[in-house]
Amino acid sequence: MASLVGKVAIITGASRGIGRAIALKLAGNGASIVVNYAGNAGKAQEVVAEIERLGVKAIALQADVSKVPDIQRLFEQTLEHFGKVDILVNNAGIAFYKPICQVTEEEFDKIYAINVKGTYFACQQAAQHMAEGGRIINFSSSTTVMMLPTYSAYVATKGAVEQITRVLAKELGAKAIAVNVISPGPTDTELFREGKTQEQIDRLAQMAAFGKLGDVQEIADVVAFLASDEARWITGQNIRVNGGIA
User: Which domain holds residue 235?
Assistant: First the structure.
């Protein structure tokens, strides 16, 4: 169903993984897409080409979301090209897994700059420029409630994103802008597999009720729903898209 025809969506970190799946899903539903990327222009252009083959408009825009001027430029260029922003998906993020005694200040600052600062200031730009009735969809993680050793820095950033989402939903309610956060469980992406042994991956997969890792399309489908008019009465919520992980 082409439920997003006429809408313009910015997806951060859209050159691969979950971001790429979201870009293609929203494009398949009719939205024009801004494929944001930090460094891999080739991969981003591949996503643009796939979208254009669907008969939908798309553009790749470089921006490092850890830098506020880059975020501002991302929105400025989107407005110059498409004239408006209806949907923001704050998908860009990084992760690392270390005991707290081994985390360096540099690592801490970097993960907060991308996962929290990037989300916060992209939301700020959306609050200033988004059309009435828009959608902001942030990304947390089901690991925030799992008490997993070595995850302290990562889940701290995701907990912050959840609280940003709740407050912003109240702030932007008068403009009918819905703000929600998705918390995937273990999802089979390059980022998820990084730094894990196959034994660790298998163990996490078995923690889900369905006994498997999530698929990027399963996450993208929920994003598409939250971006649609069908989700107009949902805001300030944390949707745990995790296959029943516990």
Answer: 8-239
Query: What is the tens place of the pLDDT at every residue in 26-42?
Result: 999 999 999 999 999 99
Q: Is residue 246 part of a domain?
A: no
Q: Which residue type, as a one-letter code, is found at position 121?
A: F
- Reply yes or no on whether the pLDDT at 198 is more than 70: yes
Q: What is the pTM of this model?
A: 0.95
CA dihedral 3, 137, 219, 16 (to 10 degrees): 100
Two structure tokens written together for 30: 């009719």
Domain count, the chain: 1
Distance CA 124, CA 122 (A): 5
Query: Is the model more confident about 246 or about 238?
Result: 238
Residues in a beta bridge with 36: 61
Q: Name every residue whose Cβ is closer than 8 Å to that of residue 234 and which is 6 or more positions away in sequence.
A: 178, 180, 226
Answer yes or no: 97 catalytic.
no
Residue position matching structure tokens 């516990």 = 246
In this structure, what CATH number is given to the domain that contains residue 210? 3.40.50.720
Whether 1 has a pLDDT exceeding 60, the answer reads no
Q: Where in 63-111 does DSSP place strands (E)?
A: 87-90
Task: Please answer whether residues 201 and 213 qualify as being in contact, where contact means their C-beta atoms are separated by less than 8 angstroms.
Answer: yes
Q: Looking at the domain assignment, is residue 223 inside a domain?
A: yes
Active-site residue, selected from the candidate residues 37, 120, 151, 154: 154
